[in-house]
Structures are given as C-alpha cells and as structure tokens.
Specification:
The structure is a homodimer of 110-residue chains. Chain A contains 5 helices and 2 strands; from the N terminus they run ααααββα. With 110 residues, chain A is mainly alpha-helical. Chain A is globular and about 55 Å long. Chain A starts with 10 loop residues before the first helix and ends in a 7-residue tail after the last helix. Chain A binds a DNA duplex (30 and 30 nucleotides) through helix 4.
Chain lengths: 110, 110
Amino acid sequence: MGATKTEHFTGKQNAIATLAKALGHPARIAIIEYLTRIDACICSDIVNELPLAQPTVSQHLKELKNAGLIKGSIEGNAICYCIDEKAIEKLQNYFGGISTKLAARKDQCC
Amino acid sequence: MGATKTEHFTGKQNAIATLAKALGHPARIAIIEYLTRIDACICSDIVNELPLAQPTVSQHLKELKNAGLIKGSIEGNAICYCIDEKAIEKLQNYFGGISTKLAARKDQCC
DNA sequence: AGAATTAATCGTAATATTGCAATATTAAGT
DNA sequence: ACTTAATATTGCAATATTACGATTAATTCT
C-alpha cells in the first residue's frame, strides 16, 4: 500500500485535502508567505529566501502549482509566480464553515 | 533524505504546516466533517463511516490528535473524540490574514 | 470468571515525499 | 554564436506515509 484511496471520498473532500497537503510543508508555507509579503509577482530571488537548494525549491513550487495554490507564467528568463487567491479563499471558507458549525453546537463534552 | 528540514523554518510556519499536513488526506477531512456533522463527541461508529479498515482509521485519528486537531478522552470502552476548535480557528485566521493581504495588493500581474 | 465489544498497537508491504547533485532547458546580453 | 543567468528535470538515496492483517489491551455484559 502507501497510496491514498482517493476514490472512496467525495470530490470536495479530495479537493480540500489536496490544498491542505500542498501546504503541509514549512517550505511551501514560507513560499506562500513570501509571495504574500512582496506584494508583487516577479520573484526570481525566491531561492535565496529559502534554506534549500534550487532544485528543491523548484520542486516545491511545482507542487504548489499542481495543487492550484499558485499560478505562474514565463516572463523572460525569470518566472512570475503568484498566489491564486481563489484557493486561499476556498480554504478560508472551508474552515470558516466548520468554525461556524462548531460554534452552533449544543453539547461540548471534551 | 526524505525528512523535512523543520529546523530552518519558523515555529509558526511549522505549526501551520503541521495542521495543514494533518488535513492533507481525504480520510482525515472526512473524519473532521463527520465530527462536525454529528454535533456530539461520542462516535464509536466512526469506523463504519469510513471506507477504511479499523487500524487505518485509528491511525488517522492518532495523526489528527498529534497535530492538535482533535481531542480525545477515554469514555468506557468507546472513545470520545472532538474537534479542537482552536486549531480550526488558527487555520481560518491564517488564511483570512493572507486573503486580506492579497486583497490589499496594488499589482496583480498574473 | 468468561464472552463480546471496541479501539490501539505491532509488523510489514507498497508507495510517496524530501532533498540534492548533476544536467538540461530557456532566454537575455554581448 | 557564445556566455551568462535563471529555472526545470532527472536520477537517486533516505525517510515518511498509507493501508491492513494479526494481535493486544481495556472495558462492558452476562
């Protein structure tokens, strides 16, 4: 085994899990925070911001892109990466919804 | 390699990554949703709710617990698991903060 | 006490992730 | 065309995750 049984879960559950998984690494959190902080997209120096080798950073960027958390386009010989706001909103709304439901709970045993 | 270099990142980055990682599996999302839905904590039948074997579910529960997303206490020969609202709030606030910062951005190249 | 019930743990196989050196690719500058 | 600069890909070793059968531990019921 070792492979996740995605086929047994709903599309929405898998979608949220994919986003969460992509953020389940401190380097990728750091990338998102950096992209948020610089208030711009062209970030050729993102490698210098992280304590990891260039291929490793490139791989993390790829995973964020695959998950739909960042968008990128070729911009000369540099790359323009941006956060996809919709993905962040999706997460915010998801956890917001859970919070609301939890707050409306009557029983709280633990 | 294969081990995450947590020591190079901030405590906050690691904390968010830990929470996100724990939710980075559809079964664990399904568990959280189930715990939210039943509006109670005693959920001995959680195994029947998931398309996975009992040891696998137990393992997922353990990971959610280690990440601080659920709390549990022994309750007879069943177990009482609850969502830890603070963890969900942490995530909600985190993504809310990013959303806000992104919305305030001037440039939007992508 | 003995049986039944429920959840955790152990052991293990299959697969995925992480990280990096080496190399390739791509585009800009000369 | 040649060099430089920036990012991507490949290949691989180390480690982590996922899943489950078998077993164990703890509690309840009779």
